[in-house]
Amino acid sequence: MKIVNRTRYRTDHLRAFALRVAQTELDSTVGFTMEVTYNRGGTRHTGTSGWAPYHGRKIRVMVPSGAVDRIDLAHTIAHEMAHTRGVRHAAMRGAPRYRRVGTWRACYAWAEALPLDPTPAAPRLSPEARRAEKLATARTRLTAWEAQARHAERFRKKWARAVRRLEVAAAKAALGPAK
């Protein structure tokens, strides 16, 4: 299962939610993609929503930019995975497994135990370390361009020889046959 994560949450944690739901919702996760993004509206929207085509292999789950309710996340993933199996909203009516009715929170209570942590921030480099990193990158790129220049010069010489050879052949042909 491929996870396309466009949020601050750890991809491995999102994958754990998807795999746990997939155990009951999907026959196979091969070729399946779950994209996780933020929902529109900023902090106004506090719930998780999603989208999936019927009989598709890709779902999109949109989480709020604030705190994410783990049970709601698992419920939304299950709802969207059901769509990929061809289940339509009419068939989901009244089912707490797919709709927020009745005991729907109890169906996914296991989700509270799963971690959903943000990705740790990359450590800030000191100005000296940043300069050293930039210098190393510049040296690497210079080496690559020098190699490319040598390669280009070798081919320039090859084609210059070919042009000279063809020009000599054309000049001889213009003079006519040798006597």
Question: What does this protein look like?
Answer:
There is one protein chain. With 179 residues, the chain is an alpha/beta fold. The chain is 49% helix and 11% strand. The chain has two domains: 2-113, Zincin-like (2-Layer Sandwich); 123-179. The protein is built from five helices and four strands, in the order E-H-E-E-E-H-H-H-H. The protein has a four-stranded mixed beta sheet with strand order 1-2-4-3, covered by helices on one side.
Could you list some keywords that capture this structure?
179 residues, alpha/beta, Zincin-like, 2 domains, four-stranded mixed β-sheet, 5 helices
CATH C-level label of the largest domain: Alpha Beta
Oligomer: single chain
Proportion of residues in helical segments:
40-55%
Give a quick account of the main beta sheet: strands, pairing sense, barrel closure. Answer: 4 strands, mixed
Short description:
The chain is built from five helices and four strands; from the N terminus they run βαβββαααα. The chain has 179 residues and is α/β, with parallel strands linked by helices.
Topology:
Layout: E1 2-5, H1 11-25, E2 33-38, E3 49-51, E4 58-63, H2 70-84, H3 89-92, H4 104-107, H5 127-175
Parallel strand pairs: 1-2, 2-4
Antiparallel strand pairs: 3-4
Helix pairs in contact: 1-2
